[in-house]
Amino acid sequence: MHKPIIALDFPSWEDTREFLQGFHGEPLYVKVGMELFYQTGPGLIASLKEMGHDIFLDLKLHDIPNTVRQSMKGLAALDVNMVNVHAAGGSEMMEAALEGLDAGTRAGRERPALIAVTQLTSTSETQMQKEQGILKPLRESVLDYAALAYESGLDGVVCSALEARDIMDRIGAAFLKVTPGIRLAGDGASDQKRVVTPERARELGATAIVVGRSITKAADPYTAYLKVKQQWGKE
Ligand SMILES: O=C(O)c1cc(=O)[nH]c(=O)n1[C@@H]1O[C@H](COP(=O)(O)O)[C@@H](O)[C@H]1O
């Protein structure tokens, strides 16, 4: 769980395979998001598993409880390590997601960890207040969503590392804090608003980091990955 999670945000399996060839067969923790999954379909998951990689399937479900329950049943059968929903879907939806995962997990297999997105790392406090009508500090909104996810029985949240310490203090160390919005020093933030380096994420108490463009767009992705891994300092 602790190795950096690489976001495979690519448009095709060919691009993904080419990228992974540069990692010399090293077993990785990868994240498959909407861009890749919608192009390739579920077959991709089996291919990545055959290559020995752990998988965070990031489809950020957010729908009525029944739809989420049934969809999670299908995702559980893919036997990935972690999946997610949006906490904004509410406690009933998050509980339904867990029920679906439990129902869909094959005998003898471990249920995928279920985490909830709090406030996307591309959201700023001003945006949140203006566009979502949440009139409190962003930190508080993240904490409230984390508490709701915890009360709904989830294993953790997706947040910025900037909020990890507060969540740990309020909910405890075992609750996962999976943190995207990671950049190597000198890399542009692009669409991300709440950004930290791998080293800072560790200091702030993140459980895991999710890194996309600082690795995938680097001139030498494997060297960038090793740099991220060294700065992050966990295996
Ligand atoms: O759930 C996620 O993985 C996620 C949540 C969030 O709040 N912010 C966020 O950036 N992500 C994902 O993390 C990855 C970050 O990519 P980079 O910004 O390129 O490092 C993307 O694949 C996003 O979809």
From TrEMBL:
Q: Which residues form the active site?
A: 58 (for ompdecase activity), 60 (proton donor), 60 (for ompdecase activity), 63 (for ompdecase activity)
Question: Where does this protein act, in terms of pathway?
Answer: Pyrimidine metabolism; UMP biosynthesis via de novo pathway; UMP from orotate: step 2/2
| Gene3D superfamilies associated with the record | Aldolase class I (3.20.20.70)
Enzyme type, top EC level: lyase
Which residues take part in binding substrate? 9, 31, 58-67, 121, 183, 192, 212-213
Q: Which UniProt keywords apply?
A: Decarboxylase, Lyase, Pyrimidine biosynthesis
GO CC aspect terms: cytosol
Catalysed reactions listed for this entry = orotidine 5'-phosphate + H(+) = UMP + CO2
Q: Cell division: is it a keyword of this entry?
A: no
Is the Lyase keyword given for this protein?
yes
Can you cite a GO biological process for this protein? 'de novo' UMP biosynthetic process
What EC number(s) is this enzyme filed under?
Answer: 4.1.1.23
Q: Where is the Orotidine 5'-phosphate decarboxylase domain?
A: 3-228
Q: Which Gene Ontology terms cover its molecular function?
A: orotidine-5'-phosphate decarboxylase activity
Q: Which InterPro entries match?
A: Aldolase_TIM, OMPdecase, OMPdecase_AS, OMPdecase_bac, OMPdeCOase_dom, RibuloseP-bd_barrel
* SMART domains xrefs: OMPdecase
| NCBIfam families (UniProt xref) | PRK00230.1, pyrF
Family from the record: Belongs to the OMP decarboxylase family. Type 1 subfamily.
Its subunit composition reads: Homodimer.
* Function, in words: Catalyzes the decarboxylation of orotidine 5'-monophosphate (OMP) to uridine 5'-monophosphate (UMP).
> What is the name attached to this protein's record?
Orotidine 5'-phosphate decarboxylase
* Naturally occurring in which organism (per UniProt): Weizmannia acidilactici
Q: What is the lineage of its organism?
A: Bacteria, Bacillati, Bacillota, Bacilli, Bacillales
By which gene is this protein encoded?
pyrF
